[in-house]
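Sequence of HSPA12A (Mytilus coruscus).
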Amino acid sequence: MGNTLSRKKKLKKKKTERINNGDESDKKEQTEEDMMPHNVHNQFGDGQTGIQTDTVKPQDITVEVNVERQPKEDSDSMPSTSAVKTVKDEKDEKTTIKSKKHSKLMVAAIDFGTTFSGFAHCMRADMTKIYCHDWKSTYGITNKAPTSVLFKPDMTFDSFGYEAEKKYHEPEEYGDLSKWYFFKNFKMILYEYKKQLNVETEIDDMVPGPQKTKMKAIDVFSAIIKYFTKLLLEKAQKSYIDLTENDILWVITVPGIWDLKAKQFMRESAIQAGIPSDQLILALEQEAASLYCRKMPIFVEEKQDGDKTISQLPIGSKYIVLDQGGGTIDITVHEVIPEGNLKEIHQACGGVWGSNTINKEFENFLYQVFGDDVMSTFRTNNPDDYFEIMNEFELKKISYTGERESERMKISYSLIECYNKLKRMEINKSLGETKFEGKVRFGKDKAFLQKEFFQSFFDKSVSAIVDYLGNLLGKKSINTEDNPIKTILAVGGFSKSQVLIDEIKSTFPDLAIVVPADADLAVLKGAIIYTFEPESVTCRVSQYTYGVPNFTPYDARIHKGRRISKIGLQRKPMVDDAFDKHIEIGQILEIGQFQQEHEYYPTTEEHKSIVLDFYASEEKNPKFTDEETCYCLGILHFDITRRARIFVKLNASGTELIAVARVEGENQEIQGYFSLI
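Predicted 3D structure, token representation.
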């Protein structure tokens, strides 16, 4: 697949001034000279020269802006962030984006998970036939493979999934891999590093050694995506000889709780992998799962004759979508509206309580029992045995039901030997002096864990999920008395855990807890459905408050201690870095609709482009962009032809943000470009 890399420009950052700040009197007092640049000399009509201020200086920085190529007018792909067709809604005079269905021959979806990943496809002619790629493992055929990848010493891709793990953990068969790169469970960096995430972000590999080696995260992600595209095309062309890479629309799923940086990172990874931007869309995982399960039989209804029947969620029903994966738990609330469509009534939320939390608790147990020194030596000398222990626990975790009084699992004898050698003590004897006495014992190559103790590995994750659900259900704004939430739709691989589902059921006995048979594939299959029915989700709720920094008139009552800049000939006192809010957290966003325009004025003579710092906050009304709750997502760039007022408006109703601007006196709208990573 040919590379379609983003066109990049180097820009000088320029200050802009928001015009409509302050109260009405402030606006009336503003003259043209107030709005002139505050860091350059300009000629006024009366021959006077503007004076350069001594408090605000020009700040020249070099930034790279991702400017994606514009698709042709007759492009049959889905609209993307690089090509926005806008129309006027005559009823409310608000600009909206019209969705249009794609006409590609094939749709392919990638579910890039923390623990497991996979891809699926279907032909446009029949969206009901969705085919998931099969992965071969020692346990049989699976529809997803571990998110593990192996790179050669020169950082070129070698293998993925079960094959990568087999090579890495069986070095005696494949030779010395000490200079290779192995990565596993690395998706979480996109959530954990969200404020610092960029194209230079690196991740540590897992190959044991005195010094950790790193690779760029974007290279790791893109290599896997490229491998998926290669596998799909090779397989598809066996059945459809004339099919080309241009006939495929790709959709990649992303967690709803990801911020805009992480979403753009995933898009750039796919573009680097060779997927053209106009053949790529992102789908929110919870929405994809919700669409897939939308027509599932959920309710048990009793007929007049006493018989019972299974029915779908009726119009007006509210339900929680609980996407439980390996890394994060992603939650949102949907309501069914006419024609089977959905609307989001609470912004995406959740936390880092996925099933990997349970693995971490088990790993902590091993370190407490055997000691840091033993575990460090064991992992360095026997990485394959350590992998087998963790893999054994993974299988036990998934299948655990709590029916047996104790759980037996394999423990490599090399770990027991390592302990005996370093500690000069038998492991079971040493347990008598710890809090684990009576809860666990070790055989030659086995461990026996008491039922209650084994289940304690789940406690941290399960209690966090249940507590969060309780708080969400306690919000009267969404869980109303006249139309309460009655259903929790649990999807994702972690939803297969009987311990978790039983705890949710016992905590919320009045709710219907629905777990589809293929809960781990609901997101993947739903992503394909989303490409055929993008209009099915009619509105979303903003996850953050978005805005840009600007000048605002100085007010001694509220701006005490703030830096004051004197602007224009009248030297009017202004305060910098005020948070100019465009969109508020919790705001309902109608799909395709732009928000109200904000006016700005460039404050430098160079007027070929406008660059705005773009901020996010989890507060409803942040006052300044340097507050602790605010962080800079990146920059927003517009190409303009002359120095004049510009009118900027945003559309955050989609999975990615869109911005357009209009120059005063011109009717044509200019596409904005976000550079967030």
